[in-house]
């Protein structure tokens, strides 16, 4: 859907055959400017009907740029073993993180914003000026590549933010390049005020109004987010979301 709406991350789709394909990989267009250390943007999403077709794409076709730090993500159980086997044969290290996969359907009524009437706090959206704060507070962040990535996400995709009386963000969530809700966060001193629920519902409604699914993922030990998602009546899917970070030996020091 993002590719059909301006394609801001310069994605393209590769299949094993056409029209009867058995494996699909999305990747950055080869002409796109890249940073070999930026696994946030050097991202591949995978779906397959036949895992052998996916393995064949990895092994036989010029599909993956194995000279970069990159990520491969998907929802299918064989993804890790197959990707790891091919990556190891090319001398890349592989780090797997697995999450609960979640989708939810916002209530047709808008969330209650009565607590945000007046000048502050107020419900709005993120700006690129907030990127440094998001980079510092994200468990995956804290580096130059992530700062650049978050800046582009804010510029390209829907976000929601609660701001205090000075205009500073205190609670937020944004959308990533795969239309997944991500980096839902509330500053510690502003927690237990309902902001996270409000932000999540508002962003979900915004995505829904544009025709996108309301989807996300959460780590098994993130009990606060799991509790919030249950409160929102989210559906925890039987599959899991897998993210692999692959690092060439040249960058593993």
From TrEMBL:
<dbReference type="GO" id="GO:0047961">
    <property type="term" value="F:glycine N-acyltransferase activity"/>
</dbReference>
<protein>
    <recommendedName>
        <fullName>Glycine N-acyltransferase-like protein</fullName>
        <ecNumber>2.3.1.-</ecNumber>
    </recommendedName>
</protein>
<dbReference type="GO" id="GO:0005739">
    <property type="term" value="C:mitochondrion"/>
</dbReference>
<dbReference type="InterPro" id="IPR010313">
    <property type="entry name" value="Glycine_N-acyltransferase"/>
</dbReference>
<dbReference type="Pfam" id="PF08444">
    <property type="entry name" value="Gly_acyl_tr_C"/>
</dbReference>
<dbReference type="InterPro" id="IPR016181">
    <property type="entry name" value="Acyl_CoA_acyltransferase"/>
</dbReference>
<comment type="similarity">
    <text>Belongs to the glycine N-acyltransferase family.</text>
</comment>
<keyword id="KW-0808">Transferase</keyword>
<keyword id="KW-0012">Acyltransferase</keyword>
<feature type="domain" description="Glycine N-acyltransferase N-terminal">
    <location>
        <begin position="1"/>
        <end position="158"/>
    </location>
</feature>
<feature type="domain" description="Glycine N-acyltransferase C-terminal">
    <location>
        <begin position="161"/>
        <end position="248"/>
    </location>
</feature>
<dbReference type="InterPro" id="IPR015938">
    <property type="entry name" value="Glycine_N-acyltransferase_N"/>
</dbReference>
<dbReference type="InterPro" id="IPR013652">
    <property type="entry name" value="Glycine_N-acyltransferase_C"/>
</dbReference>
<dbReference type="Pfam" id="PF06021">
    <property type="entry name" value="Gly_acyl_tr_N"/>
</dbReference>
């Amino acid at each position: 859907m993002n590719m059909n709406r301006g394609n801001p991350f310069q994605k393209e789709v590769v299949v094993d055959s056409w029209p009867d394909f058995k494996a699909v990989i999305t990747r950055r267009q080869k002409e796109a400017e890249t940073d070999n250390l930026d696994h946030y943007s050097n991202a591949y999403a995978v779906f397959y009907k036949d895992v052998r077709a996916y393995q064949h794409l990895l092994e036989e076709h010029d599909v993956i740029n194995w000279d970069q730090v990159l990520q491969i993500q998907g929802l299918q159980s064989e993804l890790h073993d197959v990707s790891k086997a091919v990556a190891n044969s090319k001398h890349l290290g592989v780090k797997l993180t697995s999450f609960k996969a979640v989708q939810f359907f916002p209530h047709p009524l808008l969330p209650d914003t009565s607590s945000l009437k007046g000048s502050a706090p107020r419900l709005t959206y993120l700006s690129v000026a907030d990127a440094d704060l998001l980079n510092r507070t994200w468990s995956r962040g804290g580096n130059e590549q992530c700062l650049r990535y978050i800046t582009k996400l804010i510029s390209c995709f829907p976000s929601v933010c609660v701001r205090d009386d000075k205009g500073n963000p205190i609670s937020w969530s944004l959308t990533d390049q795969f239309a997944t809700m991500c980096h839902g966060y509330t500053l510690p001193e502003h927690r237990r005020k309902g902001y996270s629920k409000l932000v999540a519902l508002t962003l979900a409604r915004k995505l829904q109004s544009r025709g996108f699914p309301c989807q996300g993922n959460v780590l098994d030990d993130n009990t606060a987010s799991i509790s919030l998602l249950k409160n929102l009546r989210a559906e925890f899917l039987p599959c899991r979301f897998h993210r692999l970070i692959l690092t060439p030996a040249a960058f593993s020091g």
